[in-house]
Amino acid sequence: MPSSILLQGAVGTVGVLIGLLFLAVGIAMVVWTYTDAKKNSAHPAFLWALVVFFAPILGILLYVLLGRSAR
Predict the structure, then answer these.
(1) Is 9 exposed, middle or buried (0-12, 13-18, 19+ CB in 10 A)?
(2) Would the pTM of this model clear 0.70, i.e. be above it?
(3) Distance from C-alpha of 63 to C-alpha of 58, rounded to nearest angstrom
(4) CA angle, 56 as apex, 53 and 58 as ends, to 5°?
(5) 30, exposed or middle or buried, with CB in 10 Å at 0-12, 13-18, 19+?
(6) Could you report the per-residue pLDDT of 3-55, keeping only the tens digit for each?
(7) Helix, coil or strand: residue 65
């Protein structure tokens, strides 16, 4: 019986670590979009950051395809 308790703790720890990794990647995507949009977009950077916050994958794709000014 004690081995199943240890296994549950390990699975829970891995789950928390994966959740923290996804949170860190999400925050990094929002920060990158905001800083890049301040330099390379004619649209407000805050709005692009909100789009990426609420729809991460679609938001990044839209920003890269539509939001960045042509150099």
Answers:
(1) exposed
(2) yes
(3) 9
(4) 125
(5) buried
(6) 555 556 777 788 888 999 999 999 999 999 999 999 998 889 999 999 999 99
(7) helix
Which residue bears the tokens 């539509």? Answer: 66
Angle at 18 between CA 34 and CA 30, to 5 degrees: 5
- Rounded to whole angstroms, the Cα distance separating 27 from 52 reads 10
Alpha-carbon dihedral sign for residues 50, 53, 55, 61: positive
Of 56, 66, 3, the residue nearest 32 (C-alpha): 56
Residue type, 36: D
